[in-house]
Design goal:
The complex is a heterodimer of chains A (378) and B (513). Helix content of chain A is 40%, strand content 22%. Chain A has 378 residues and is α/β, with parallel strands linked by helices. In chain A, strands 1-4-5-3-2-6-7-8 form an eight-stranded mixed beta sheet, with helices on both faces. Chain A has a seven-stranded mixed beta sheet with strand order 14-13-12-11-9-10-15, with helices on both faces. The longest helix of chain B is centred in the middle third of the chain and has 19 residues, at 258-276. With 513 residues, chain B is α/β, with parallel strands linked by helices. Classes of the chains: A alpha/beta (378), B alpha/beta (513).
């Protein structure tokens, strides 16, 4: 059921909700949280609502969508209430804000929050620079952003690091869970040796790849190289070297992963890219601060950003993967590797400030991303 | 902190997102053509795989008499998964799982087929990396247990090879765990001769249900209930497991067993233990079990059994818009069968907390509807400062844990009826699992199979719990067998008249669930 309340106030919305509950039984009780979705009014609004409706099957919630419309229009609040079949297991209140009101979303959200239950804010597209300081972010215990949906994902990640407040989380981190689980379970088994070298490669503008590299760098206490994959979507490959051999998890096609471990046959793993709805459902499962995410953000600086040309990458891998090229080819590799490493290391270290970092990183990455996109299109 | 956490740099106790994935392992199912296997086990394995909780390279081996090739078996699993799995079907997940599916044809007394099974397992260790870790699921009649476990021992599959002590072999068995104390001890002896007790997993699928585990959360995570969870406030407890289906087609298993052995001995006494036990010092399996054993060892059936127990057998009639046959008309049952399809007993727990509080356990087939619940009924307020007329309609307060269906918790209490007179009537406050949490919580078998592969024994009754349960039930069974046929009750009702009388004697009555 969809009920439109054009040009209204929140108290009218509230009394309509009470009326609906009385008519339809206790449909709005038993909700475990309020989810506030902040977005610009447009096609993306519905996508976010759909994802929230799916997630609500696991976490029945009240969804409040703050859709910011044209800033130049006269101030007005249009509301829409969706319950029953149109709202999954949740009830959805869409608030379309126009004019000056568009910047005052929090004032419309406060009267509609469920009493004494957690509030989660989610920015499915562009997030404020410091979510915890945003007026809506301040209402929420948990603030979900999505670096991958931003214009410059890698820079967005740097921003998350700078503005981190307990309770922040990012879907780029959630997308990693399967990878992290698979890697962690590979290390549950002996031999319990120290990892000596680590490499993570993925799309140039995949923030998840950066976070995975950072997480590994933090846990393993070794420098982790972050490489740009020649092809594939999102995270493509993780290589962890130990004395006994290489543990490698790679997913060239975005669906099936292959796990290689010394002393074990090569094994395939279903490692499909996760949809937003799955990620959101996982996010809503935990409402306490995610300290491991924080640690991963803090370790972003430990990642060695190797913008190594695909050729060099291929060469660097040769000794372990045992490609069929001659020895003479392989010999100069370590040198080349060292050079590139040194350069990049130097640059990053010299300009330690977060902003400068972002710029240095951002430019080439942006170009690379464009190139990748062009490729994908063709 | 467990050992792997210490040694694995990627595990962090603060990291609550990472699921525990089972280590390299495989599962062998005996009796793979059965209903349980198709409807529950195979879908559960797929669902686990879909949730990413099975190890890469997991292997599933079927063992049965049918003349199937690997492909035929794979097709059977495929169909079972498509039809019964809880999570959506994904080709990529299936393909990955299908690579590890094998079938071994044979009978339980045929040495050659067990040797073939052993060969298949070592092939899997090599090709799929199952690492010598195998669980054997015995979905077979208890009569076949000795043959199968001894064959496993003979073929060298029951214990890990001495050169690889780190590997594990586990055996999963299903109820009935015997039919009385003596046979249960006998069965435990047979199984324990081959598999040590820590490798034996007895499946009681009720214990895998979220709502049953929630009893522990409700009791031990809240301040609200503990002060009143004792004989000072509780009048009595009713534990019910009712089914609306009959026993058509199950005569082979059920005739001579009956409702008490089938349900009370395992499910209901486990529910009683969870409801009545003291707080465990931790949720470690051994601590949890210690408390369950303690409370079961203090539990006795209350006599005289003529007055404190009831049993019945359903007769034909109309139920839910259909004409249904009585037990004696169901195919396979003897025309003079004295098997009971309804059983109710009274227990007491001789501890300070529970002395004087009767625990009523009842179960039956072809009852009013399908429901399982634990109802804790509280005493009346000692003094009611109202007129007599005001509280005429007020019953006793109750807290009901609904185990299935419509999982949740109900609290019943009195409330003023709107109007200008003071009148108090019973109302209920309701917490629905489905409203507050996941719509489709994992199936019990998913949880239990994963626990077997992880070697996490807390949700599996151990041999002493099984034997204690028989000790409680045996006197009642003995009394019943000496006293002729059970009373008839009409299909679709809530059991025989004697069941109502057994509570009426003490001024109580059964809840209508």
């Amino acid at each position: 059921m969809i009920i439109d309340l054009p040009s209204t106030t929140t108290s009218q919305v509230n009394s309509k909700l009470v009326q609906l509950r009385e008519e339809g039984g206790a449909v709005t009780l038993g909700r475990v949280l309020t989810l506030v979705i902040v977005t610009d009014d447009g096609t993306k609004t519905e996508e976010a609502v759909d994802a929230a409706n799916d997630a609500s099957r696991e976490h029945p919630c009240r969804v409040i969508v703050v859709a910011r419309g044209a800033r130049k229009a006269a101030p007005r609040l249009d509301a829409q209430i969706r319950v029953g079949g149109d709202a999954g297991a949740s009830e959805v209140i869409v608030l379309r804000l126009y004019g000056e009101l568009a910047n005052e979303g929090a004032s419309c959200v406060v009267p509609l929050l469920l009493p004494d239950t957690p509030v989660v804010a989610w920015w499915p597209n562009e997030a404020p620079p410091v979510p915890a300081k945003d007026p809506i972010g301040q209402l929420a215990q948990r603030r979900i952003t999505d670096a991958a949906a931003e214009k410059n994902p890698i820079r967005a990640l740097e921003q998350r690091k700078a503005g981190y407040t307990p309770g922040d989380t990012d879907l780029a981190w959630t997308r990693l869970t399967l990878w992290r689980a698979m890697l962690a379970s590979a290390f549950d088994l002996p031999p319990y040796e120290k990892v000596t070298e680590a490499e993570v490669s993925g799309e140039a503008d995949s923030p998840s790849t950066d976070l995975l590299a950072a997480w590994l760098a933090g846990c393993l206490r070794v420098p982790v190289k972050r490489l740009k994959a020649a092809r594939g979507e999102g995270i493509v490959d993780v290589r962890l070297e130990r004395r006994s051999g290489v543990v490698e998890l790679s997913r060239p096609d975005g669906k099936i992963g292959t796990l290689t471990q010394p002393g074990q046959p090569e094994r395939r793993v279903a490692l499909q890219r996760r949809q937003v709805r799955d990620c959101l459902a996982e996010e809503l499962r935990r409402l306490d601060p995610d300290e491991v995410y924080e640690a991963a953000l803090r370790s972003l600086g430990k990642v060695v950003r190797g913008r190594i040309a695909p050729k060099a990458t291929a060469a660097a891998r040769k000794p372990a993967s045992g490609a069929a090229k001659a020895k003479s080819d392989g010999a100069p590799d370590p040198k080349a590797d060292g050079k590139v490493d040194g350069k990049v290391d130097g640059k990053v270290d010299a300009k330690a400030g977060g902003k400068a970092d972002g710029k240095v990183d951002g430019k080439p990455v942006k170009a690379a991303a464009k190139a990748a996109k062009a490729k994908a299109g063709s | 902190m467990t050992a792997p956490t210490k040694r694995n740099p990627l595990r962090d106790p603060r990291d609550k997102r990472l699921p525990r994935i089972a280590g390299p392992s495989g599962l062998v199912i005996f009796g793979v053509t059965g209903d349980l296997s198709r409807k529950k086990l195979m879908p559960a394995i797929y669902d686990l795989s879909n949730r990413g909780l099975l190890p890469p390279g997991f292997a599933l081996v079927g063992f049965a008499r049918r003349d199937w090739a690997d492909q035929d078996f794979m097709q059977v699993v495929h169909d079972a998964v498509k039809q019964h799995a809880r999570t959506p079907f994904r080709q990529a997940v299936w393909d990955q799982l299908a690579e590890g599916i094998r079938f071994v044809q044979g009978t339980f007394d045929d040495d050659a087929s067990f040797d073939a099974l052993a060969a298949t397992l070592s092939d899997l260790d090599r090709d799929r990396g199952t690492g010598g870790n195998h669980a054997f699921y015995l979905s077979v009649p208890p009569g076949a247990f000795p043959t199968v476990v001894n064959q496993l021992k003979r073929a060298g599959m029951a214990t890990p090879p001495t050169e690889h002590p780190g590997q594990w072999r586990r055996v999963v068995i299903e109820k009935p765990f015997g039919h009385d104390l003596a046979s249960a001890k006998q069965l435990n002896k047979i199984v324990n001769e081959v598999f040590p007790e820590e490798s034996v997993f007895r499946i009681d699928h009720y214990l895998g249900k979220e709502t049953v585990q929630n009893i522990l959360a409700l009791r031990f995570a809240n301040q609200l209930y503990e002060p009143i969870w004792n004989a000072n406030y509780v009048d009595h407890v009713q534990i019910t497991m009712a089914e609306d289906i009959g026993l058509g087609g199950r005569a082979g298993y059920y005739d001579g067993i009956g409702a008490a052995r089938d349900v009370i001995q395992n499910h209901l006494l486990q529910l009683l233990a969870l409801t009545a036990m003291e707080e465990p010092v931790s949720f470690r399996p051994s601590d949890l079990r210690a408390e369950k054993v303690k409370v079961l060892s203090a539990t006795r059936p209350v006599g005289p059994f003529d007055e404190t127990t009831a049993r019945g057998q359903y007769s034909g009639g109309w139920q839910g818009g259909q004409k249904v046959p009585g037990l004696l008309e169901e195919g396979g049952f003897a025309k003079d069968s004295t098997t009971e399809t309804y059983a109710a007993i009274t227990c007491e727990i001789n501890t300070r907390r529970w002395a004087g509080v009767p625990f009523y356990l009842r179960t039956g087939k072809r009852l009013g509807r399908r429901v399982t619940e634990v109802a804790v009924v509280f005493k009346r307020a000692p003094h009611l400062p109202f007129d007599d007329t005001a509280t005429e309609e007020l019953g006793q307060n109750a807290l009901v844990v609904r185990v299935q269906p419509d999982e949740g918790v109900t609290i019943r209490f009195g409330s003023k009826v709107p109007g200008n007179t003071m009148e108090v009537r019973d109302v209920t406050m309701d917490f629905g699992y489905g409203h507050a949490f996941t719509e489709s919580s994992p199936e019990a078998y998913e949880r239990l199979l994963l626990d077997v592969l992880l070697g996490e024994p807390s949700l599996f009754p151990k041999n002493d719990e099984v034997e204690l349960s028989w000790e409680i039930l045996d006197p009642v069974m003995k009394h019943w067998s000496a006293n002729g046929a059970p009373e008839k009750y009409k299909a679709g009702t809530w059991g025989p008249a004697s069941a109502d009388e057994m509570l009426a004697r003490t001024g109580r009555h059964w809840r209508r669930p």
